[in-house]
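Hello,

Following up on my earlier ticket. Below are the two sequence lines again, exactly as submitted.
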Amino acid sequence: MKVAVLGYGTVGSGVVEVLESHCEVIKKRTGGDVLEVSRILDLRDFPGDSHAAIFTKNFNDILKDDEIKVVAETMGGVNPAYEFTEKLLAAGKSVVTSNKELVAQKGLQLLNTAKEHNTNYLFEASVGGGIPIIRPMAQCLAGNNIEGIAGILNGTTNFILTKMIEENMSFSDALALAQKNGYAEKDPTADIEGHDACRKVCILASLAFGKHVYPSQVQTQGIKDITLQDVAYAASANGVIKLLGQIKYIDENSIAAFVSPAVVFAGSQLASVRDVFNAILVRGDAVGDVCFYGRGAGKLPTASAVVADMVDCAKHIDRRKIFGWGAGDSDYVVDYKQVLPMQFYVRAKMSQSEVLALFSDVKFLSRKGQPSDETAFITDKMTENELMQKLSGKVVYSTIKVAEY
Amino acid sequence: MKVAVLGYGTVGSGVVEVLESHCEVIKKRTGGDVLEVSRILDLRDFPGDSHAAIFTKNFNDILKDDEIKVVAETMGGVNPAYEFTEKLLAAGKSVVTSNKELVAQKGLQLLNTAKEHNTNYLFEASVGGGIPIIRPMAQCLAGNNIEGIAGILNGTTNFILTKMIEENMSFSDALALAQKNGYAEKDPTADIEGHDACRKVCILASLAFGKHVYPSQVQTQGIKDITLQDVAYAASANGVIKLLGQIKYIDENSIAAFVSPAVVFAGSQLASVRDVFNAILVRGDAVGDVCFYGRGAGKLPTASAVVADMVDCAKHIDRRKIFGWGAGDSDYVVDYKQVLPMQFYVRAKMSQSEVLALFSDVKFLSRKGQPSDETAFITDKMTENELMQKLSGKVVYSTIKVAEY
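Thanks for your patience. The regenerated structure is below:
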């Protein structure tokens, strides 16, 4: 079967490499079919690349080629990936993607287009890189009502936090190291501000509960305000600070979905996820907690997930996978600060007696070099709005959610 | 769609419960179809059970009912489950199972029968209880050559080892507690001798490499010789002793597959798996290590995996999932003791200088109350046969493999 690849960057070139180097295992999975890359679209030139004969700068070379049945879109960004994907699906081709931005923004429309034209749009690689998560969520958890999801969804921020936790490195030094290692972009905004994790939350939430969630609906807070003081206080309670994407079922018509730093205590499967690794924990009412762990990014891990989707499309060329979600109401994602009770970590210029006057069930934390007028503690459960009300008028250095996973 | 359940024990009654309580989520996944339990086969009576009207003791009531399209086999054991499953598949019905013993012994034949009759035989629940592992292995890793698999596959033994590690409980006390908690059978042989883990290794190996592996081919060692002394020495090197099932790709025509205790060091995703939880780590050449974690047993977790397979069958009623494996040669599973180099933990009546005379790259361990004539150490890499040769003539208390994961 002929296939094509849109975008010959890190992931796209990885897809071509995996398709070529894994012929045998692919044949086993398709039942004999080889996936032959017959076209690669990229506006750039790649002098000396062995695929010179199949490069094209003209999208129509792929769109109009009836022999090409499956296309991997690894361009990234919404435009022109969206337009290209719409046209390919409308032409009856299957499309698979690693493009989380596109799925988070336009997944609903693209799945509808795929449905109309009886073809498939798959996106396993858009969350968790090479970790199988989309398909297990969609299929294997068909016997569960999903109660909540919590994930370490961004490898760059997890690398930075790991360096802060394990090597007492400052945020800015850890970021510089991440950039030096190629884990963070020159402009690291999308990672450290939580936008990348936010897109993945949208995809997971849409899939888990069947209604599209857009990035604008997900309150998102990054890690750049996390200090080594906070890291030290958390450590005194056997906790680590992680950037978590969280989704919580509330009722048939509403969920909570947000991205923020969170204190995770030892014993949680999420606590031991270090460096650039990702993990996604899914809580089902029958199965309990299941957790999926692995490399959330990188050329070959992500490419292997794209290729798995291409193999799946090749096997399902004559039928559609039931895999869609509908539109949600504008108030489908609630303001979690108002409705979701949770515990918080607080660091403030307060005395212990001031804290005890405000909070009933408090666990105090300590750190080396703690100033006499600084107090850090874990609260009992309350909404974030209630917390803010209690703390109003106080000098608060930081508040961080405590994870329930 | 009408479905039936064979065996109304823990898992079978859980399947009925999940099917009834999860109508809505099942409808979403099937695209509108409900799975209605129309027959339950069990030779026992269940006075007062609300399903009185649909119980039967006659297998033919299910076999001959053309409206029943999908059957869950949750009887356990090879007979009569094998005969029943053969007949159901031959009649064109899909069968799903949690019966690892049957899949390990007869998976090849049953998959062939399913193929002949263009129907499906699925067994997600046979490994890892509710953890999605079979399907991610089969589908999502289509872009990888699998290099190795290591799993904590048995919850009972992991519970016992956790109590020994964390509470310094003796093996026999921990076993008694597991029995009291309902985690271990009155006759705990299948768990503590590793037979249960062995069956799961067979299924994972067959699936990963496409050739059936039988329990008799998998060298299996349980945990009953593990002592608190070994636990303490391992702890001094930040290690924990786990019962691991391991599979290693050697070449196109051979693999290693075995079950044994193994020292796992902190930092491994397998080290933090406590109590009755299971985890399966898969190492692919493109994706690196991915790990799947969750409850490996229990009524509702296992039932939810059975139900997910039933939903999958309902969606694929008109087509077969490509999912088979062939026969392996008799020498397909090699004698790992002869060919697979690994590190070992050794505890022996030897002096450090005697150890150093035999081994070149040794890490000595220590424990509280260590007798002056007892030495424990980690060796460099060698085959188990080489190790045994070196140690011949010595008083050796224990040797335990060191995991590479």
